Amino acid sequence: MTDALLTIEDLHVSYRGHESTAHILDGVDITIGRGQSVGLVGESGSGKSTVAFALLGLLDGNAQVSTRRAAFDGREMRFGVDETRALRGTDIAMIFQDPMTALNPMFTIGTQLVDIQRRRFPRESRNRLWGRAQAMLVDVGVPDAAARMHRYPHEFSGGMRQRVVIAMALLVEPKLLIADEPTTALDATIEAQVVEVLDRLRQRTSASMLVISHSMGLIAELCDSVIVMYAGTVVEHGPVRVVFSRPRHPYTRALLACEIDPYAAFDPSQDLATIPGTVPDPARRPQGCIFASRCPARHDRCNERPPRRQTREGRTYSCWQEAA
Ligand SMILES: Nc1ncnc2c1ncn2[C@@H]1O[C@H](COP(=O)(O)OP(=O)(O)O)[C@@H](O)[C@H]1O
Ligand SMILES: [Mg+2]
């Protein structure tokens, strides 16, 4: 695909321990088109943040990372090395779950919003950068932006802090914006407001987005396509409307059954009910289908690795069960 901003084929991440090796990502493929918004969904521990961290070169030093192929903005890349780290804060910006990860408690918001732009716009005056920052705060819905520029992070509420972090990410005009559980730390009403801000920005900026969440509702709201991850593998991938209205993989079905209806009015308080059973130990991954031990439709065939099937609507899924 020529107009992809990001292509990753067969991403593996593992951590070698004393006795065994934990395979956290086992052959993940991701493509994000320019201006496209892709959701990454799966239970906690499925490896979503690991994907983001691999992209940003933020994995722990002992992580082993490999890909068959990776390219960003038309350039071949190797992940987890300086090349990818150089993209951070310019071509790729990240919004974390906890806004304080991105904010320094010692400096005013204004100073931080100016400093973040320096690498991107080294020749602009402080005045210009200050003006851009203030305008961006207005854009993300921070009231009284001119005065707030002089305040410190602790003087903001959680929701306002996350808006500041979104402004911070957008000020560098990234080609890719990664939001890792951007609203999980917020309470329900504030969460809905932040989703609204992200949705508005998505329609306005040309940036691509990778939205990571365990909430199908949030993904339905913000994304064009969705990647469903289970235990470090992609089990289903396709346009949001196709995957959510006619899920093929039993795991996607189970996830959706836990959340009432992703197209119903967005209710962020809906949390993932538990699917019976547990995720396989990353150090002892089964030979066959990764979901078999928890799958209601399991049969003998599932002891072998399932094929990746394609349906006409542009969706792929990995399961022995053929589409009805
Ligand atoms: N440094 C590490 N060493 C070993 N395992 C790790 C390390 N970092 C993360 N993991 C494991 O990787 C798995 C996936 O984690 P993560 O990507 O954070 O999942 P998610 O974001 O989907 O909740 C978890 O089982 C976690 O324990
Ligand atoms: Mg995570």
CATH superfamily of the largest domain: P-loop containing nucleotide triphosphate hydrolases
| Gyration radius from CA atoms, angstroms | 20 Å
Low-confidence stretches: 261-272
**CATH C-level category of the largest domain:** Alpha Beta
The helix/strand class is: alpha/beta
Number of strands: 13
Helix content: 25-40%
Which helices and strands, and how do they pair?
Blueprint: E1 4-16, E2 21-33, E3 37-41, H1 48-56, E4 63-66, E5 69-72, E6 75-76, H2 82-85, E7 92-95, H3 109-115, H4 126-139, H5 145-148, H6 158-171, E8 176-180, H7 188-204, E9 208-213, H8 216-222, E10 225-230, E11 233-239, H9 240-245, H10 250-258, E12 308-311, E13 315-318
Parallel strand pairs: 3-9, 3-10, 7-8, 8-9
Antiparallel strand pairs: 1-2, 1-4, 1-5, 5-6, 10-11, 11-13, 12-13
Helix pairs in contact: 3-4, 4-6, 6-7
The structure holds adenosine-5'-diphosphate and magnesium ion.
Outline:
This is ABC transporter ATP-binding protein. The chain has 324 residues and is of the alpha/beta class. It has 10 helices and 13 strands.
Name the descriptors.
ABC_Ni/Peptide_Import; 8-stranded mixed beta sheet; Rossmann fold; ABC_transporter-like_CS; 5-stranded antiparallel beta sheet; binds magnesium ion; binds adenosine-5'-diphosphate; 10 helices; ABC transporter ATP-binding protein; globular
